[in-house]
Amino acid sequence: MSVTAVNHFTILTDKLPETLAFYEEHLNLKPGARPPFTFPGAWLYADAGRGPDPLLHVVAGVDGKRLVKGVIDHMAFTGKGLVAAVAKLKAKGIQYELRRLPGYGTWQLFFFDPNGAKVEIDYDKSEPGPEDMGAGARAATRTYY
């Protein structure tokens, strides 16, 4: 048995509206087709809901006492528009960490969703970085606010 790609990640939440708004604003994921389960939630699709397959399943209606933060170490997506993504996180006051992958140059942007799940978005090494990083800091691991 082998795998060829990421299929989806599942997040449990007691904050469905906040979670959906977060992923729409920061990853452009929107709800789409979902089986008629007996519990609330959403399946989120790329490209503002036009993607062919759901990338993120959100299960709602979970008692807050059952929720465990950080069960998923992180979920990784491929993105475009690093500078705009960083600007949006800054504007919302969301703490993030921006790295360059040693030996590859890929930009890695890390931050947390409203449920405490870590999100990673990888950007091509050819994308420009935020101006406030400075050339010398581009290979370093730094946390920004």
Number of helices: 3
| SSE order | EHEEHEEHEEEE
* Total domain count: 2
CATH architecture label name of the largest domain: Roll
User: Strand percentage, roughly?
Assistant: 25-35%
At the third CATH level, what is the topology name of the largest domain? Answer: 2,3-Dihydroxybiphenyl 1,2-Dioxygenase, domain 1
Total beta strand runs: 9
Description:
This protein has 145 residues and is an alpha+beta fold. It contains three helices and nine strands, in the order E-H-E-E-H-E-E-H-E-E-E-E. A hairpin with a 6-residue loop joins strand 6 and strand 7 (107-112).
SSE layout and pairing:
Elements: E1 9-12, H1 16-27, E2 30-31, E3 41-45, H2 46-49, E4 54-59, E5 75-79, H3 82-91, E6 96-100, E7 107-112, E8 118-123, E9 142-144
Quick recap of the structure?
The chain is α+β, with helices and mostly antiparallel strands. It folds into 2 domains: 1-64, Signal recognition particle alu RNA binding heterodimer, srp9/1 (2-Layer Sandwich), CATH 3.30.720; 72-140, 2,3-Dihydroxybiphenyl 1,2-Dioxygenase, domain 1.
Can you give keywords for this protein?
single chain, 145 residues, alpha+beta, Signal recognition particle alu RNA binding heterodimer, srp9/1, 2,3-Dihydroxybiphenyl 1,2-Dioxygenase, domain 1, five-stranded mixed β-sheet, four-stranded mixed β-sheet, 3 helices, 18% helix, globular, disordered C terminus
